[in-house]
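If you are new to this repository, start here. Below is one unmodified record pulled from the training split, so you can see the exact layout before writing a loader.
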Amino acid sequence: MSTDLTGDTAPTESRLMRAFKSLNDRKMAAMVILSFAASLPYGAVLGVLTAWLTEEGVGPAIIGAIGLGTMGYAFKYLWAPAFQRAKNLPFLKIGGRRSWLVSLQVAISIALLVLAFSNPAENIGMVTIIAFVTTLLSPTHDLILDAWRIEVAESEEDKDLMSALYQFGYKFGGFISGFVALILAARIGWVGVYVMIAVFMALCVIGSLLAPEPKATETAEDGSYDHVSFQPSLPADKVNLGVMIVALSWLVAFALIGNFLISFINDPEGSSARVFVRNQGWLIVSLTVIVPTITSAWLVFSQNGKPSSIRIGAAEPDRQKAITGVLFRAIFDPLMDLLVRLRWGIILVLGLALMYRFTDAVWGSLAYAFYLGENYGALGHSLDDVAIASKFSGVIATIFGAFLGATLITLLGRMPILFIGAIVAAVTNLLYADLAVGGANVDAFLAMTRLDIPLIAFAEWAASMQPEQVTIPPDQGQRMARLMLTIFAENIAGGLALVAITAYLTGIVNPRFATMQYALLVSLTMLLGTLGRAWLGELMETQGFYYVFVLTFWLGGIAVVLCVLEWWRQARTGENSENLILNQQIASKN
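And here is the target side for that same chain:
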C-alpha cells in the first residue's frame, strides 16, 4: 500500500503484475524479433555451414581455415565505441538505432542469399569472403541491439523481461538455423535452406520498424555524452604513443590473418592452417592481448591522477585527436581499470578469459565434420540424426546446464562452480574421443544405466521418419543412443560452464566501464578458439578425431589450473566478485 497527498492509501501493483503489463508494450514484441535476427547469421555461418561443406566433401582442414575468416565476433569490441551514440543514417531517417538495425538486417539477408547460391564445392574462396563479411555485419548488429535494449528499458521490470525475451528469441532463432535447417536440408537441399534463412532475416526488419527509438538517441541532437576516462590524467604524448603502439600491433596481427586468408582463397589446398597457427598464432595473441596489456600497465604508472568524466562530442574538429580518443576509450580505459584494481591478478583474469571456453569454442565449428563425415574417425550420421541429437536434445541440455549452473552458483558461490565447469567442459571431450574409436565406454554406461532401452527405441522411431534415400545402418539405434548421450552430457557441461564464466566476468567488470570491459573480456573468450580451429582442423585430417579430442581434454586442464590459482588469489587477498562490485560503487561516489 502507498499513501497519496490526501492521506488516502492506494494499492501498489506487485512487480509480477507490472511485468505482465509491460508485455503489452510494442518494444517487447520487437525484442523477440530482434533477438531472433541476432541468432540467425551466427547459426548460419558458424553452425550449419560446416554441415553443408562436409556434405560437399570439404575436409576439416579447409573448414577450420575458413573459421579464421569469422574473427568479427572475437574483435567486435574494437568498434563498439563508434556505436555508443548512433545518429540517423542519411538514407533512412527513422532514428539512429532503428536505421542501423534495418540496414544491417538487409545487408545480412543479401549476404546469406549470395551464400545460398555460392556452390561451396566449387567456390570455397567466395564462401570464405561471405563468411568474413557476415561475421562483421552480425556482431555490429549485436552491439546496436544491446545498446537499444538497454536504452529503451524504462524500468527494472522492463530490463528483466527484455533479458528473458532476448534469450527466448535467440534460442528460437538457433532452433530455426539449427534443427529446422538440418531437417529441411535432407529434403529440399541446402540452397533452399539458406534462402529460407535469408528470407527470415529480411522479415526481421519488421522488428526494427516496430521497435521504438530510445529517447536518449531521439533528444541528443549533438550526439554528445559523458564518459569516465583515464585519458585526462595522462600527458598527451604518452596517450598518442600508447595508441600508436597498440594500433600498429593490431594492424600487424590483422595483416597476418588477412595474408593467410588471401593465400587460402587463392590456393585452399596449398595453404597449411596448422603451419600458420604454429608459426604465427602466438604472435597474433601477443600483438592483440599481451602488447595492449603491457602498454596499459606503462600508462597506469605514468598517470598523474584518477579517471575523470569527460564530454565526448559528436563532432570533433581535430580528426586525429578524435580517432585517438576513440581508440583510447576502446582499448586502454577498460584495461587500465582492470590493472588498477587487480594488479598482478590481471594475468589470471586474462588467462581465464582466453582459455576457459577453449575446449568447446575451438571445435564447435568442426562438430558437423565429426558427426556427418566418413573419414578420420568421423561418425557418418545423417542430417536428421544430428538435428535430433545436437539441435534438439542438445539445446534442452544446454538450458538445463545453464539452470543447474545458476542454481549451484547461488548455493556455493562463483569460484567453486567456475572450477567445476572447467573440469566437466574438459572431461566431456573424452566422451567424443570414445565415440571416435567405437564408443565402447559410452555403450557400457548405457547398458549399466539401462538408458540404452528408451534411447534406442526413440532412435529407431526417428530413423523410420527419415527420407527414403538415406541409408539406415543396422546398428542405427545403438549409434544414435551413443550420440545423444554424449551430446546431452557435453551440452549440460557447456551450459554450466557458460553460466560460470559469464558470472565470473560480470563480477570482474567495473560498472563504470561495463560495456567496453565486458565486450573486451567476452571477445577474448572467443579469440583462441577462433585461431585454434584452423590448427585443429588440419590435425583432424593428419592425426584423426580421437587424437584431437584427447588433446583438447589436456588443453582444458590449463583452464582448471587457472581456476585454482584465481580461487587461491581471491581467498588470499580477500577479494570476491561481491567485494569488487562494492568497492567499485564506493569508488564511483568518491
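Two things worth knowing about this chain: The first strand starts at residue 2 and ends at 3. The chain is about 75% helix and 0% strand.
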